[in-house]
Every structure is written in C-alpha cells, then in structure tokens.
C-alpha cells in the first residue's frame, strides 16, 4: 500500500553556492494530491528547489516539512523510504539491462520489499519476483511499451527512455513524485501521453512536483503553478491566474 499523497511545506528556505543566491527565502506550500508546477527562467532556482525537497542538497537556512514531519536534516535515503521518488533531467537507466529489470529496480525502496534479492533472482524471492514482474509489465504497457519488456533500455529512443524512467519511479509507489523537465526532447505525441500520465499519477494518490519549461504542458496539467525569478517566489496559484500575472510576463520577457 502506498499510503496517502504527501504534502510539502518550505519555510524561509535559502541556498547559496559561493556568492550565487540560488534560493533567497522561499515560503511555499505544496498541497497533497496536486500537480504543482515550478516555472521560471533559467537560473531562477527551480532545480535547486527540487534538490532541497529531495534532500540531494541541504538548505543553508529554513525548514522543509514533509507531511507534518520536519525533514530539514533528513538524508535523501530516508525520504525514499517515506515515498519520495524522482525523475531526473537526463535518464539514469541501466542501458544493457531489460526494460523490465529497469522498472523492477524501482521497487527497491518499497517498504518490506526484497529489492536486492529480487534483482539478484535469489530463489526465496521467486514468487514476489513473479508478482513484481507482472506489475512492471503493466506499468510498461501503461507507458506505451507493451510487449517490449525484454528489450535493452539503451535501444529505446530518448523520449521512450524518459517514459521508462517514469515507469521505474512509479514502481516505487511514490506518495510524492519530483519531475525535473520531463518534457525535454519529447515529440508532440509523447508530450500528449506525458500529460495524460501526469494526471493519472496524481489521480492514483501521488503528489507531483513538476519543474517544466513547456508552458502548454504546465497549463494543461498543473493544479497550481509557482513562478520563481532569481531565487525568489514571484507568484503561486492556479495556472490561469499565475501564468496570466503581469509580473510573470515581465519575468520571462526580462530574462
Ligand atoms: P534553474 O533550475 O531554474 O535553471 P538552478 O536551480 O539550476 O536554476 O540554479 C540557480 C542558480 O544557482 C544559478 O545561478 C546556478 O548557476 C546556480 N547553481 C546551481 N547549482 C549550482 C552548483 N552546484 N554550484 C554552483 N552554482 C550553482
């Protein structure tokens, strides 16, 4: 069971790299069960924000609250166990392994799953492995990769590798999914399936935080859009409101 979708609260979060102020005091609430998009020009702090939420980076100041628990000092590993999964900007796949094995790796962080035993095909994990393999195949089918479970990941074109990454992240049954520019390099048709996929992920009980440049995708899938500019939060609200805000137009034109 995956449990309820996770909410996130950032309070006064600051992060600098040397003299570069990537985040200059961010206060933000991400409601559980929503698709929350983070947009803004290059260098506005979007990826840093994702890294702070997933604990790949520790903030210099401020707090990160996950579902009422202060995780300001928690390591990334602990967040994975609490149901936080991430899709990176560039696919991180095992190229010579099959699509199915790549998806199966996603089960590794599940509570009580015999992740390593399954991947190593140890005998006592056989039954669980069969169940998980069936689940992996269903996920592959849901991502337009039906019947291709035995192919090598490296044989897929870029767009399908990205969809494979999403399938692997879902295998972890995340309660919070962080996506860093999932639309980059996708064809228009793949973009459409990605949009449907993101809504389906939310509807199965997962909060989605989406860093994305593709504004049409954002407008069509996001429940809330937060706009960053030079490490500050410009506005946050429903897409029509946030993206129609005169300050946001200025942020983009002025960049
Ligand atoms: P975005 O994702 O909106 O493009 P980033 O969060 O990647 O923005 O970067 C925000 C600012 O922080 C930029 O000026 C970037 O150069 C800087 N920055 C990000 N990561 C690092 C790092 N590891 N070392 C030094 N500067 C960094």
From TrEMBL:
Subcellular location: Cell membrane
Keywords: ATP-binding, Cell membrane, Membrane, Nucleotide-binding, Transmembrane, Transmembrane helix
Record domain ABC transporter: where: 8-255
Gene Ontology MF annotations: ATP binding
Protein name (record): Branched-chain amino acid ABC transporter ATP-binding protein/permease
């Amino acid at each position: 069971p995956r449990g309820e979708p996770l909410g996130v609260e950032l309070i006064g979060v600051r992060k600098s790299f040397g003299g570069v102020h990537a985040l200059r005091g961010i206060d933000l609430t991400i409601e559980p069960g929503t698709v929350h998009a983070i947009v803004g020009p290059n260098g506005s702090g979007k990826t840093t924000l994702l890294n702070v939420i997933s604990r790949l980076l520790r903030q210099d100041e401020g707090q990160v609250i996950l579902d009422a628990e202060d995780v300001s000092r928690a390591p990334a590993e602990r967040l994975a166990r609490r149901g936080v999964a991430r899709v990176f900007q560039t696919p991180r796949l095992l190229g010579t392994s099959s699509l199915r094995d790549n998806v199966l790796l996603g089960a590794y962080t599940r509570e009580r799953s015999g992740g390593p035993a399954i991947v190593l095909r140890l005998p006592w994990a056989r039954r669980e492995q069969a169940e998980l393999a069936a689940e992996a195949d269903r996920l592959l089918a849901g991502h337009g990769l039906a019947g291709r479970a035995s192919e090598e990941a490296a044989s897929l074109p870029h767009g399908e590798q990205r969809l494979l990454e999403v399938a692997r992240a879902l295998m972890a049954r995340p309660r919070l999914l962080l996506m860093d520019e999932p639309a980059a390099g996708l064809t228009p048709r793949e973009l459409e399936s990605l949009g449907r996929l993101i809504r389906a992920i939310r509807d199965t009980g997962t909060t989605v935080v989406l860093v994305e440049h593709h504004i049409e995708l954002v407008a069509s899938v996001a429940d809330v859009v937060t706009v960053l500019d030079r490490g500050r939060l410009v506005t946050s609200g429903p897409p029509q409101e946030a993206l129609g805000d005169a300050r946001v137009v200025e942020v983009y034109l002025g960049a």
